[in-house]
């Protein structure tokens, strides 16, 4: 009676180990596939992609329409990204041109100041400390707090002969 019960409850193949192993492999594969689908759904932020993964289509035309809509959405996102890239490149180009013009303007002003100094230096008295520009540059100190140079005061050195 117990043998009959075991055969009825477990079926004819209740004792077949190969069948049990095959069933366990299928279950393991199904669990892995389910975990992969769950991971794919979690990675995806779009509702349409979730729908596409979970949808069962009645016909090829429905599948084609759904995938065409997804393609249009992706293409629209691509166009938006390309437009943003072009805007950023244009903005970068304008900033670059602005920086270059600022540098050129500052170079011209520096050349003007240098030429003025060269012209004025010959007019400064020899006994004044401002007659030597290199010495003035070496004695000048940049003040971080005020954001300007501290230049030594002009001094006239009178030499007295005995």
TrEMBL record:
<protein>
    <submittedName>
        <fullName>KIF17 protein</fullName>
    </submittedName>
</protein>
<feature type="coiled-coil region">
    <location>
        <begin position="57"/>
        <end position="123"/>
    </location>
</feature>
<feature type="region of interest" description="Disordered">
    <location>
        <begin position="8"/>
        <end position="27"/>
    </location>
</feature>
<keyword id="KW-0175">Coiled coil</keyword>
């Amino acid at each position: 009676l117990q043998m009959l019960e075991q055969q009825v409850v477990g079926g004819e193949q209740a004792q077949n180990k190969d069948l049990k192993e095959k069933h366990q492999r299928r279950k393991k594969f199904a669990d892995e596939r389910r975990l992969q689908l769950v991971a794919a759904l979690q990675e995806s932020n779009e509702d349409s992609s979730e729908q596409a993964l979970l949808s069962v289509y009645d016909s090829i035309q429905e599948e084609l329409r759904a995938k065409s809509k997804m393609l249009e959405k992706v293409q629209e996102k691509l166009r938006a990204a390309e437009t943003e890239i072009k805007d950023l490149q244009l903005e970068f180009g304008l900033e670059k041109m602005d920086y270059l013009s600022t540098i050129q303007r500052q170079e011209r002003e520096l050349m003007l100041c240098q030429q003025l100094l060269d012209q004025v230096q010959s007019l400064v008295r020899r006994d004044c400390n401002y007659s030597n520009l290199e010495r003035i540059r070496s004695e000048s100190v940049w003040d971080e707090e005020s954001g300007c140079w501290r230049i030594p005061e002009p001094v006239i050195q009178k030499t007295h002969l005995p």
